[in-house]
Design a protein that fits this description.
It contains six helices and seven strands, in the order βαααββαβαβαββ. By secondary structure, it is an alpha+beta fold. One of its GO terms (molecular function) is acyltransferase activity, transferring groups other than amino-acyl groups.
Length: 209
């Protein structure tokens, strides 16, 4: 089952959302942030939102990994190539039906504020989303998507930046990222043994060889 890297397309959005839903099912924090109930068209609306982001933001790049035996999309990433310095846009205040709105505002708002503090006014490549179908984890698909963005960052001579969950933290270390900050959701939200920590990571421009 050879895996290949290809540009993402609008028609991939539905499959991307399916992978996102499956991948987040193993995140213990998700049921607290998004307890439901959800409308029947929730996945469709999410896919439409991703397409709108891609069409309206010229910095957005979708990259996908495809299993060539089945032609199935098995992993994807959303990179934002911000080679012109600018301040991060304000974080969103709506998170869709079924969310715990106040908890989402505190969690995602904390992430956006820290991003603005760390990267405001800078040029960089942002790894905004990366998800792999659990059936394909451990096959290197995630690494292919990370490397695509690192190659782009190296061509532009700008750093690469991301925000990592605890589960992915070690993977990003392997690709040269280092911690530059941390945010932990207030335990007042009673999220049990879930890990409410996010790591802010950067991979600097390599020195010329």
């Amino acid at each position: 089952m050879p895996l290949v890297l290809r540009p993402g397309e609008d028609d991939d959005a539905t499959r991307m959302v399916e992978i996102e839903r499956t991948a987040f099912a193993d995140n213990k924090l998700t049921p607290f942030l998004f307890p439901g109930p959800f409308p029947a068209d929730a996945l469709e609306k999410r896919a439409e939102g991703l397409v709108a982001q891609r069409q309206n933001d010229p910095t957005t790049r979708w990259v996908k990994v495809v299993d060539t035996d089945t032609d199935e999309l098995v992993a994807y990433a959303k990179w934002n190539i911000m080679n012109t310095p600018k301040d991060p846009e304000p974080g969103r205040q709506e998170f869709g039906p079924g969310c715990n709105l106040d908890m989402c505002k505190e969690y995602f708002g904390g992430i956006y504020r820290k991003r603005a503090e760390l990267m405001g006014g800078k040029a960089y490549c942002l790894l905004d989303l990366l998800q792999t179908d659990p059936k394909y984890q451990g096959r290197g698909a995630g690494g292919m998507l990370i490397q695509w963005g690192l190659d782009m960052a190296d061509q532009l001579r700008i750093p690469a930046y991301l925000e990592s969950s605890p589960n992915a933290h070690g993977l990003y270390y392997k690709y040269g990222f280092k911690d530059i900050g941390q945010f932990t959701l207030d335990p007042k939200w009673n999220y049990g043994d879930a890990d409410g920590t996010i790591y802010f990571m950067i991979r600097d421009v390599p020195e010329p060889k």
